[in-house]
Amino acid sequence: xxxxxxxxxxxxxxxxxxxxxxxxxxxxxxxxxxxxxxxxxxxxxxxxxxxxxxxxxxxxxxxxxxxxxxxxxxxxxxxxxxxxxxxxxxxxxxxxxxxxxxxxxxxxxxxxxxxxxxxxxxxxxxxxxxxxxxxxxxxxxxxxxxxxxxxxxxxxxxxxxxxxxxxxxxxxxxxxxxxxxxxxxxxxxxxxxxxxxxxxxxxxxxxxxxxxxxxxxxxxxxxxxxxxxxxxxxxxxxxxxxxxxxxxxxxxxxxxxxxxxxxxxxxxxxxxxxxxxxxxxxxxxxxxxxxxxxxxxxxxxxxxxxxxxxxxxxxxxxxxxxxxxxxxxxxxxxxxxxxxxxxxxxxxxxxxxxxxxxxxxxxxxxxxxxxxxxxxxxxxxxxxxxxxxxxxxxxxxxxxxxxxxxxxxxxxxxxxxxxxxxxxxxxxxxxxxxxxxxxxxxxxxxxxxxxxxxxxxxxxxxxxxxxxxxxxxxxxxxxxxxxxxxxxxxxxxxxxxxxxxxxxxxxxxxxxxxxxxxxxxxx
Length: 523
Prior knowledge:
Layout: H1 8-20, H2 30-41, H3 48-73, H4 75-96, H5 101-105, H6 107-121, H7 135-151, H8 159-170, H9 175-182, H10 186-198, H11 200-211, H12 250-264, H13 274-293, H14 297-317, H15 319-342, H16 345-356, H17 361-370, H18 376-379, H19 393-400, H20 415-448, H21 452-467, H22 479-519
Helix pairs in contact: 1-2, 3-4, 3-6, 4-6, 7-8, 7-20, 9-22, 11-13, 12-13, 12-14, 12-21, 14-15, 14-21, 20-21, 20-22, 21-22
């Protein structure tokens, strides 16, 4: 292939020749001509490595702007597409395009960025949901303001690291004010969730295949080049892997399973075709089974607590309907239990041995709540800046030659501790005060709604937010997205109920007027 470098002098001569054909010399910018002549006379050309880098950069920028432009054209479909990309991006990074792993990681964010531009900046006359002056919005805006302030913390060494942290803290928040315009009816919301949750079937089947495949099977690999060991149930008496499904890592998959379980159960409260009812039960079974196969206690405990809380609260409000509905679940529970004990007995045994051999659950939960307060001695009234504990902060500093900033005094894994280090005590109180306010807002939404399906979705959001309160959200690739989707239910569900009530009212008025005109003696 002919090198681009060979055409470099020819391109300069061609440009110079074009300018020479212009009859009016005054039309030619003097500075531009001088710049071209300087380049033409220079003997320094790009090396092959520099040329290749520039080509890569050009292609990357072209892809970025193309993705943003396509998503800009239809913001509703773009936001819905993000849910699909979230599920498959790990498969793309692990098996199909590992060389483009970093770009694919940000793919959903680029799609969402285009949707943000269209909805917030160039709405073209489309009605936008008003951001009202209520307590939940006030908490969110104040917390976001403190995060922005901490992005410029001198301890970070560079504001670019702070921008990386802001992406994790704030990038998905605008979704919550788009949701009342994203879905225009209860049926549209139901169909979207139904189709999205259907992905649990192929993903869940893949998880089963992973569990029973050898550890060195390509289907069980993580992202190539990371040199990370494959997690197994080894100490539990088996070499079966802890599955990741289509996700890049185990942590991302368990967050996805817990979030989707909360959306699955309310699907049972709406009238469905027989085939979709069976598929919903299948999705519930595969979600629970895959949660055991991850070997992680978080999704399993979350699902148990969710079921207990969901049916207990429903029984307090509608005891007769709840117990009747539970009676219909008995055949499914019997089939699921039989399959688990017969076909998937190794899964249950491996998980039980793993859980019973660890006695630190209570200690880890307690440290999640109490641990952050011990960091006050390190931070004082200030923190180390948003993004200080981000896993990609070191790579960003190396790639761009940024200052390393103030070293962290301690390594922290639980997210509450990381937030305390990054935002300081003031930011910690604001951030988790906001999360508590969102939980109360979801509960209030649940108590005010009348339509069963919408009310159950609000209850699911309340339980997921409460149960996973100390779980990772800011730096969680999958659960962070679902967290803000659940938060958006505060604004979406009352809007949908008003729409459904209005449509129902119009239907009855139409029926009444039709009957009146038909029966009237004056017609």
